[in-house]
Structure formats: structure tokens, C-alpha cells
Backbone:
């Protein structure tokens, strides 16, 4: 499982012109799932997301977590995180999990963020064409990969 975290001052996702999820301070989490992922990977990455110390303290140092600053997380499914572009010019997505496997794991990640104490946890619509608005703060972008953890 892969999660790209972008620290934001605000973020939102829309489908067909309607906002389906939005947050202020926190993370936009782009979440990709591969075939071998299980709930354990979702739980590990949710714990890491909630506790990652990349928000500024009173001295301007990245020393606080989303939990510490009352930050939310906007979860957006992103199968393209498992794109393979080694051959040719068109990426292959065979490493991305099928929707019937990926959707419950993306939802489990969101549920585990709530269980960690993150509020709000907002999300897009799985499988929909989404417009994601990201107001990077920093910018700070962190890659979490369950294989590397």
C-alpha cells in the first residue's frame, strides 16, 4: 500500500461539480493499493499518518503530528500510484489492486485514521473522476510505502 501525504492548509475533492469531501489544516492522502495488501498495511499506514510529525510547533520546527494540531485527512483513492512505466510510453496498471479489493482497504485506512483520533476524515468517491484541490502548506510531501516500513 502506498500513501502520498501532502500537508495542506486546505483541500477538497469534487465529483460532477459537487464537493464530496473537504478539510482545512491536515493532509491530503492519495492512497494506492496493490494485490498483496491487507488490513494490516492499512492499519500501519493510518497509524503512521496520524502520528507523523511534520506540522510546525511554536518555534517553527516540524515537531507536531496531525493529532497534535487537530488536523484532518482527505483520503483520495489513487490506483495510479502503482503505475509501471518501465516499457513504452503508456503505463501499465497491472500492479494496482482490482476495485473489489482496493475499495475496502482504502475505506479501512480511513476508518483507522478515525480510530487513531483524526477528525475530520473526508474522502472522494471511489472509482469516480474526481477534481482534487490541494493547497500545499510548505510544500511538504511525504511518501509512505508499506513495503518500506
Residues:
Amino acid at each position: 500500500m502506498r500513501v502520498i501525504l501532502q500537508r495542506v492548509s486546505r483541500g477538497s475533492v469534487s465529483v460532477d461539480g459537487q464537493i464530496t469531501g473537504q478539510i482545512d489544516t491536515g493532509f491530503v492522502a492519495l492512497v494506492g493499493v496493490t494485490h498483496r495488501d491487507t488490513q494490516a498495511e492499512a492499519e500501519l499506514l493510518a497509524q503512521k499518518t496520524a502520528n507523523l510529525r511534520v506540522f510546525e510547533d511554536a518555534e517553527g520546527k516540524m515537531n507536531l503530528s496531525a493529532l497534535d494540531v487537530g488536523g484532518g485527512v482527505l483520503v483520495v483513492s489513487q490506483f495510479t500510484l502503482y503505475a509501471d512505466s518501465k516499457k513504452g510510453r503508456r503505463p501499465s496498471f497491472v500492479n494496482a489492486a482490482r476495485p473489489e479489493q482496493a475499495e475496502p482497504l482504502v475505506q479501512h485506512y480511513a476508518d483507522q485514521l478515525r480510530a487513531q483520533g483524526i477528525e475530520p476524515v473526508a474522502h472522494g468517491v471511489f472509482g469516480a473522476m474526481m477534481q482534487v484541490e490541494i493547497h500545499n502548506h510548505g510544500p511538504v510531501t511525504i511518501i509512505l510505502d508499506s513495503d518500506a516500513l
